[in-house]
Amino acid sequence: MDMRSRLTTALKEAMKNKEAARLSTLRLINAAIKDRDIALRGEGDDSGVTDADILGILGKMVKQRQESARAYEEAGRLELAEGELAEIKVIEEFLPKQLTEEEVVRAVDDALSSTGAESIRDMGKVMAELKGKYTGRMDFGKVGPMVKEKLG
Question: Can you give the pTM of this predicted structure?
Answer without folding.
Answer: 0.75
